[in-house]
């Protein structure tokens, strides 16, 4: 009993911590238009309060901004340097299931005990010192400050920081003297905050450049590259272009993160790591001259791990004996460019799946031999396959730029969706998700999901059925056993909750054993995180 009470107490303390963290979220939407670096100078007050000015100056930091691929670049970078024998700290965003994912020490998310210790150390000191002029930091600013505290206290050899949004006014940009900076691929995202042109967006990202600190970027559109070069020149920054990694350098192995675009991110990571090693007194001899990669670099690139990006997970709950009937393909793409990359990845996976045994599925809480997996795959190949889309995106995104790109890229590879499912996210922006799933709101507003459904139906009709009213006429609304509603059209359904959609997928897979269902989950990292929470329960 005492042990159970202790566990309950620990769980309650963690929930209390997440409530305190949630109290720092001041806007219901991340895309609030006033979120343009208001009072950036406050961050330096917070550093003084937390006595972090000196510790931050001692950290050997790699700072990475970008629209697409910055999380993957940071993940590759961390993995390479960890395999080189360094103690690493990695700060990324957003988290998918648990906020502790944002803070990795030596490749592992911080344990609950340490997270609670450092959280309350920072939170209590800030609470004691705040006043009208210096209020509590907002959510992301607090998380960045917490990352600095964790990495300093844990005495990491290298801290890899992924910018949250933009660059110039991002909370991570209190760093004054990083070892090296990187900017991954630029594209159109968060335009309501960062600007409407690639040049404006590039200007925000280049805000992380520091005087005479070397920087790398990947090949960019001319408009963006010109701005990056101009900003670099003003600060005497030696800006170099890192080219995509040559796959032959991996000695027959594959990058740990799926997708052709990852060779671009891997190339940037290699450049960042080699420069960090050189500037911190650990140069690797002839790294760029020999035409080969050090063994530690290869191991880092081929073992890196990042949830929610080109991730494949079998659903074991449809049939524990044969879980291949329902497979989730998860990718948090949410910009037009990344949507196209995601669609290409999914299409190639389906094609490969249909042609040869694929032994790379991630088994969940059960183990089986390679021979067993291969036999199951052979059994699956005798079945038909059906592609299902499970989609949601934030209302600040333009689905007219996302869904057509997704559909047409898949079609160009010969892949079509049998059905599209539109759902609201479980997680909400103004509350940090916990271990327990929140209760489902029976009165949830589905107007956004209905709009997505209308767009999809019109796309499926070859852009000929354009009027929403025409599409509505072929839809029917039904209630399930719990009274929750489902609106079905010819090619799509809107579910009032994600658990209801997952239940429908599992029921459908159970009923139709002659079909393998392949579900692409995309449009939102929050949706991907919610799905992972549900299917891992």
Our count of helices gives 18
Q: What does the overall shape look like? A: globular
Give the radius of gyration: 24 Å
Helix content: 40-55%
Averaged pLDDT, please? Answer: 86
Strand content: 5-15%
The biggest beta sheet is recorded as: 8 strands, mixed
* Strand order in the sheet with the most strands: 4-3-2-5-1-6-7-8
The termini sit apart by 25 Å
How many DSSP-defined strands? 16
The structure class reads alpha/beta
Low-confidence sequence ranges? 1-5, 28-36, 357-378, 463-473
Structural overview:
The chain has helices at about 1-20, 40-50, 55-60, 70-85, 110-130, 140-155, 190-195, 200-205, 220-235, 260-280, 295-305, 335-355, 370-380, 400-410, 445-460, 470-475, 500-510, 525-535; strands at about 60-65, 90, 105, 110, 160, 180-185, 215, 240, 310-315, 325-330, 385-390, 415-420, 475-480, 485-490, 490-495, 515-520. With about 525 residues, it is of the alpha/beta class. It has an eight-stranded mixed sheet, sandwiched between helices. It has an eight-stranded mixed sheet with strand order 9-10-16-11-12-15-14-13, with helices on both faces. The longest helix has 21 residues, at about 1-20.
């Amino acid at each position: 009993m005492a042990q159970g009470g202790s566990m309950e107490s620990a769980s309650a303390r963690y929930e209390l911590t997440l409530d305190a963290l949630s109290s720092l979220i001041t806007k219901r939407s991340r895309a609030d238009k006033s979120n343009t670096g208001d009072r950036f100078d406050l961050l330096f007050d917070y550093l003084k309060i937390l006595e972090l000015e000196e510790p931050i100056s001692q950290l050997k930091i790699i700072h990475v901004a970008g629209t697409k691929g910055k999380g993957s670049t940071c993940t590759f970078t961390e993995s390479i340097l960890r395999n080189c024998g360094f103690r690493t700290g990695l700060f990324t965003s957003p988290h998918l299931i648990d906020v502790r994912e944002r803070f990795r020490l030596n490749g592992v998310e911080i344990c609950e005990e340490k997270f609670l210790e450092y959280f309350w150390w920072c939170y209590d000191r800030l609470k004691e010192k705040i006043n009208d002029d210096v209020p509590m930091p907002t959510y992301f600013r607090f998380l960045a400050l917490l990352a600095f505290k964790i990495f300093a206290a844990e005495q990491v050899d290298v801290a890899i920081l992924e910018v949250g949004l933009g660059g110039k006014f991002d909370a991570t940009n209190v760093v004054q003297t990083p070892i090296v900076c990187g900017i991954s691929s630029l594209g159109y995202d968060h335009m309501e905050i960062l600007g409407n042109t690639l040049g404006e967006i590039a200007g925000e990202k280049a805000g992380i450049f520091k005087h005479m600190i070397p920087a790398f970027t990947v090949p960019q559109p001319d408009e963006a590259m010109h701005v990056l070069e101009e900003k670099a020149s003003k600060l005497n920054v030696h800006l170099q272009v890192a080219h995509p990694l040559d796959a032959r350098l991996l000695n027959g192995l594959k990058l740990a993160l799926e997708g052709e675009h990852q060779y671009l991110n891997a190339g940037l990571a290699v450049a960042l790591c080699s420069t960090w090693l050189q500037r911190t007194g650990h140069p690797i001899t002839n790294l760029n001259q020999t035409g080969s990669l050090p063994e530690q670099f290869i191991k880092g690139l081929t073992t890196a791990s990042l949830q929610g990006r080109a991730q494949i997970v079998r659903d074991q709950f449809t049939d524990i004996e044969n879980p291949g009937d329902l497979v989730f393909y998860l990718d948090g793409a949410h910009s037009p460019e990344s949507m196209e990359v995601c669609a290409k990845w999914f299409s190639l996976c389906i094609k490969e799946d249909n042609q040869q045994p694929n032994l790379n599925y991630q088994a969940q809480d059960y183990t089986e031999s390679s021979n067993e997996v291969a036999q199951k795959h052979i059994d699956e190949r005798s079945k038909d396959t059906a592609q299902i889309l499970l989609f949601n995106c934030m209302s600040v995104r333009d689905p007219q730029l996302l869904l057509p790109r997704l559909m047409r890229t898949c079609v160009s590879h010969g892949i079509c969706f049998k059905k599209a499912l539109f759902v609201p996210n479980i997680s909400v922006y103004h509350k940090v998700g916990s271990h327990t799933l929140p209760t489902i709101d029976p009165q949830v507003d589905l107007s956004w999901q209905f709009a997505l459904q209308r767009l999809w139906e019109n796309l499926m009709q070859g852009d000929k059925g354009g009027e929403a009213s025409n599409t509505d006429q072929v839809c029917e609304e039904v209630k399930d056993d719990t009274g929750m509603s489902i609106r079905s059209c010819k090619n799509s359904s809107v579910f009032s909750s994600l658990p209801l959609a997952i239940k429908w997928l599992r029921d459908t897979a159970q009923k139709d054993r002659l079909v393998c269902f392949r579900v692409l989950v995309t449009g939102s990292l929050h949706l991907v995180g919610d799905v992972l929470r549900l299917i891992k329960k």
